[in-house]
Amino acid sequence: MNSIDNLIESMGKKALAASENLRAVTSQTKNQALLNIAKNIDNNRDIILQENNKDLSNGKKNGLDDALIDRLMLNNERIDSIIESLEQIIALPDPIGEITDLRYRPSGIQVGKMRVPIGVIAIIYESRPNVTIDATALCLKSGNAVILRGGSEAINSNIALYKCVEQGLVQAKLVKDTVQIVEITDRKVVSALANADKYIDTIIPRGGKALIETVVNNAKVTVIKHLHGVCHTYIDKFADTKKAIDIAFNGKARRYGVCNATETLLVHKAAANRILPDLIDKFLKKEVELRGCDKTIKFSQQIIKATEEDWSTEYLSAILSIKIVDSINDAISHIDKYGSNHTESIISDNYTRLREFMMKVDSSSVMINASTAFADGFEYGLGAEIGISTDKFHARGPVGLEGLTSQKYVVFGDGHIRD
Amino acid sequence: MNSIDNLIESMGKKALAASENLRAVTSQTKNQALLNIAKNIDNNRDIILQENNKDLSNGKKNGLDDALIDRLMLNNERIDSIIESLEQIIALPDPIGEITDLRYRPSGIQVGKMRVPIGVIAIIYESRPNVTIDATALCLKSGNAVILRGGSEAINSNIALYKCVEQGLVQAKLVKDTVQIVEITDRKVVSALANADKYIDTIIPRGGKALIETVVNNAKVTVIKHLHGVCHTYIDKFADTKKAIDIAFNGKARRYGVCNATETLLVHKAAANRILPDLIDKFLKKEVELRGCDKTIKFSQQIIKATEEDWSTEYLSAILSIKIVDSINDAISHIDKYGSNHTESIISDNYTRLREFMMKVDSSSVMINASTAFADGFEYGLGAEIGISTDKFHARGPVGLEGLTSQKYVVFGDGHIRD
Predict the structure, then answer these.
(1) Which chain B residue has its CA at the smallest distance from A381's CA?
(2) Can you tell me whether residue A292 is helix, strand or coil?
(3) Is A261's pLDDT higher than 90?
(4) How many angstroms separate the CA of residue B4 from the nearest CA in chain A?
(5) How many CB atoms lie within 10 A of CB B300?
(6) Do A413 and B368 touch (CB under 8 A)?
(7) How far apart (Å, rounded) are the C-alpha atoms in residues B265 and B235?
């Protein structure tokens, strides 16, 4: 065992002990810790910005591009929004201990389900320092111990923010091992965490596809993840013209770099002439590059012919692929074949077809007459999200506090024995 | 790729296609298929018993022990109970399509969760032929395609039962690939199934620890399993004497070979003199072997001294380990250290201590003043169970129809776009 494995084992043991302690910590104490953290961040703005400056100048020296530098950068406004997100999580109801479906059984026992923490969670993230606090807040509020491993480019910012966390925990009389941060930036840390299944219950990679694939391919620990979001908007034969144009445009063009952006537009052949000309015009004016099937490219010379690869590509940029389909079943088959089980939307006024799409499409979110851009923890009312899962197990779709919990059965008897 | 991998890939593809078809199949059709299967079994008793006889005589030839032969054996009574379990599953409500938590959000969209099938499930089991039908019924009712892989010793019985399934599916106009059985008995099939993550969503091993470990160690596919059940009953300082004796005795001695049997009894030091003498007497009369800590062995010369290994052993037989603890916290620490997160019970009349035990014990079932023997899908009202999961993810505790499903988000808008 090398020194990194030793370090992770030692952190894992401490986290496990802290998680056992956390099971019965009251909401009041957890919220107090979060409030302390918010105050500590507010009081230490100068140090945090100073440490962030170190990361920024290192980043520039190492030739990070502007987008990465922007993600890395903190300022007073961004610190305000970190504090605000802490306040939002404090205001959320505590999921832990909730008992549901408590019912008497014929034997006389009462059986229900109690919501409980998962245990120990490792979060692996990239350049945004605010994840240090967001992840801490969501894990702590849901009663989990957490091991943080941020990107090496943000290490000074992350450690400065972590000091506010550590102090806030101690002020609330919680053990500081409740939240730990890996301070060494060696990449081997990622696979060491992914293999520490004796101590870590789940690992959540937040970042690009390469990071997520590294974690998944190495993981003995359960991973909550989504690999990519190839989201579809399907304009049905019976779509309202205005709703179709608004929703398809919003799904793609609201923001390009997000996983819930529409990447492929499917249009029923009977709706194409009615809807596509205006919609194509709108996209081209917005300088969205369009790649279409044989039928689609006839609508404009500016549309490039799509390749087979296009249908399964998550562009994350101002590019949209468009395919004209013969039927709703062809649309669903296309989604089954090329989609990523993230989010798909149908635009139609036909009740039967809406029901069919909703039952048959196997995605973490299925939408009716609404933009794929709504696939988001805040929009769904989760209060905050740690990511969007495209897996079918455990958490699916936006993962908020509840996705960081499990349920156990609780049984109440009064001397009951089984025949 | 060898021929077994090819076979499993081909079966996996067919199962995936069948599962896509199953998503929108009505409850009526699924129940009709189950009813057909029940009728076909009833009409083919002679053939089934004849094929079972082949397995029995092969088993005897191969020197299978009496317990295994008994598990393998079918007779008219056991066929009756297979048919009865089909009827019970037909009577259960269909979990698929249920939408819960549907709420309006400030944006005007409605967001809810819809219960959907997992997709394709592989079940690996050992000698009991009835699992062929139980697993079929639970998977089909929950909208999943299934690949069955029973024990080689029961292959003729399983194929005879499977023919009733195949015919029942076709009679209900469902594709027969909805349920498939692996007819070759090569052990490599197990790891081929566990690695077919392109087609199979989850694998459920039902059998001994060796089988489950083989699956887990090989699996790329998500596994629903429990490795073992080291269940504890804790008799608190404030336990009622009669309830404590009844519940502890029932937890251990009701049945020995089951995963919910109490394997270790923890007794608060202040309750030991009051409760242990009668309880020990009761166990010894029942010929339960007792293995105790230093304090426990003083209660009877017939109690053997427990070794360190005893505390983590699932006896599955007429053996019980007993430890006297200094406090409720010592009891909980013992469970954390040696338990298997299956089922633990506390006997106490003290409200504060019951609350503490319930919050702090991290098991799939936590019981208050009730026998661990109640940890069972039927007792919990699930209608049927495919196993008991000691994992924290997805299904935890007894796994019934709901444990074979997932949830997706559904969003209803009427032209809604995001700001």
Answers:
(1) B105
(2) strand
(3) yes
(4) 24
(5) 15
(6) yes
(7) 8
Sort out which chain B residues have CB atoms less than 8 A from A363's CB and list them.
408
Mutation test of the interface with chain A: which of B16, B226, B374, choosing the one with the most A Cβ atoms within 10 A?
B374
- Domains belonging to chain B, first-starting first, are 3-225+396-412 (3.40.605.10), 231-379 (3.40.309.10)
Within A326-380, where are the H helices? Answer: 328-338, 351-360
Other residues' Cβ atoms within 10 Å of the Cβ of residue A191: 17
Token readout for A303 is: 């549309």
Residue B251 has which token pair? 């937890």
> A298 phi and psi, to 5 degrees?
-70, -15
Identity of the residue in A398, A409, A412 whose CB atom sits nearest the CB atom of B364: A409
Distance CA B259, CA B373 (A): 9
Q: Give me the amino acid identity at B239.
A: A
Indicate yes or no: CB of B370 within 8 angstroms of CB of A254.
no
CB A356, CB A233: distance < 8 Å: no
Contacts of A381 in chain B (CB under 8 A): 103, 105, 111
Low-confidence winner among A177-181, A241-245, A395-399, B128-132 (lowest mean pLDDT): A395-399
pLDDT at B18 over 80: yes
pLDDT in tens, A343-362: 999 999 999 999 999 999 99
Question: Cβ atoms within 10 A of the Cβ of A66, count?
Answer: 7
Q: In this complex, which of A103, A222, A406 lies closest to B396 when CB atoms are compared?
A: A406
In three-state secondary structure terms, A395 is: coil
On average, the pLDDT of chain B sits at: 95
- Residues in B closer than 8 angstroms to A408, CB to CB, are 362-366, 396-397
Element of type H or E holding A155: helix A155-171
CB B385 within 8 A of CB B377: yes
CB A64 within 8 A of CB A359: no
For residue B96, the chain A residue with the least C-alpha distance is: A359
Cβ–Cβ below 8 Å for A371 and B417: yes
Query: CB within 8 A of B289, min separation 6: which ones?
Result: B304, B318, B319, B320
- Which of B24, B365, B410 lies at the smallest CB-CB distance from A366? B410
pLDDT > 80? residue B1: no
Residue A99 has, within 13 A of its CA and on its CB side, a CA count of 14
Contact indicator for A411, B368 with CB cutoff of 8 Å: yes
Min Cα–Cα distance to chain A from B64, Å: 31
Asked if the Cβ–Cβ distance from A23 to B362 is below 8 Å, we say yes
Tokens representing residue B341 in the block: 């997160």
Residues of A in contact with B110 (CB under 8 A): none
- Decide: helix, strand or coil at residue A96: coil
State the pLDDT confidence band at A322, using cuts at 50, 70 and 90: very high
Length of chain B: 419
Between these two residues, B257 and A299, which has the higher pLDDT value? Answer: A299
Mark yes or no for CB contact B364/A246 under 8 Å: no
Contacts A353 to B, Cβ<8 Å? none
- Read off the amino acid at residue B416: H
DSSP symbol at A348: -
